[in-house]
């Protein structure tokens, strides 16, 4: 009997580095994701080596430096449901440091990078304004933090807010075949938050042949892994769902394939 993979990761504690997804422990090639929860005055720092990193201030404020360049205190929202984020792009071969000036939730989104091509920069709210996607009970609100049109080597970062009772990443779509221009191969992580925090959502990760078919309830602070297949999310009524997506693959473009049996949902 095939073993069902563990695609839902709970945070490891309440403080410090509570998520640490690497290509090695995820069993894939490209995407890394770390999540730090810090008190005011606490610090996180790392050297990017051969990775590029996008630091996303999920909530709270921090003073961020990259290779000694001080970007000052960044951050405006104290909850991911309170507006658009601040982020900082950190190129490969650099060292970053974040000193929390309030309670802070900081995501470090990583993928393969190249040295000497890109420079560190702040990605301020409004750089890519929030857009509305879908209609009716499939409405959700999308902020492209690091889209394919902005400078980077392989990393794509986006956050989505789905109102309670609505579906997201829906109709089911996938991006697990390197078949451009029709479909790109992208691994993906989801970092989930809920408002109020006792909420949850249902996420299913499955392939056409059902060789992978995992349904899971994701709760506040969970990370879900999407190594391949379709991956819709349904937020339960009464609880808005936030998720931060990290994607990367051999080509830095998002070309997806909808599940054909559900494409009728896109008809006017």
UniProtKB/TrEMBL annotation:
Keywords: Isomerase. GO terms for molecular function: isomerase activity. InterPro entries: Deoxy-glucuronate_isom_IolB, KduI/IolB_isomerase, RmlC-like_jellyroll, RmlC_Cupin_sf. It holds the Pfam family KduI. The keyword Isomerase applies. The keyword Cell cycle does not apply. This is 5-deoxy-glucuronate isomerase. It comes from Devosia nitrariae.
């Amino acid at each position: 009997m095939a073993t069902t993979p563990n695609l839902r990761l709970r945070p490891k504690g309440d403080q410090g580095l509570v998520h640490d997804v690497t290509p090695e422990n995820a069993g894939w090639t490209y995407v890394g994701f770390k999540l730090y929860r810090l008190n005011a005055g606490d610090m996180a720092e790392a050297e990017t080596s051969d990775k590029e990193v996008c630091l996303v201030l999920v909530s709270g404020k921090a003073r961020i430096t990259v290779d000694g360049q001080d970007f000052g205190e960044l951050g405006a929202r104290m909850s991911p449901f309170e507006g658009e984020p601040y982020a900082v792009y950190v190129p490969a071969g650099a060292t970053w440091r974040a000193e929390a000036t309030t309670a802070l939730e900081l995501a470090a989104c990583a993928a393969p990078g190249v040295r000497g091509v890109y420079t560190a920069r702040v990605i301020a709210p409004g750089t890519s304004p929030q857009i509305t996607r879908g209609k009716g009970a499939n409405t959700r609100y999308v902020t492209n933090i690091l889209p394919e049109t902005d400078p980077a080597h392989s990393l794509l970062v986006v956050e989505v807010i789905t109102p309670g009772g609505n579906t997201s990443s829906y109709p089911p779509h996938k991006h697990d075949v390197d078949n451009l221009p029709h479909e790109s191969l992208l691994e993906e992580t989801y970092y989930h938050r809920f408002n109020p925090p006792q909420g949850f959502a249902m996420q299913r990760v499955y392939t056409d042949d059902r060789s992978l078919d995992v349904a899971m309830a994701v709760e506040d602070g969970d990370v879900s892994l999407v190594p391949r297949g379709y991956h819709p999310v349904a937020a339960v009524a009464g609880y808005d769902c936030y998720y931060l997506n990290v994607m990367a693959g051999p080509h830095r473009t998002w070309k997806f394939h909808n599940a054909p049996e559900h494409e009728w949902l896109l008809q006017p």
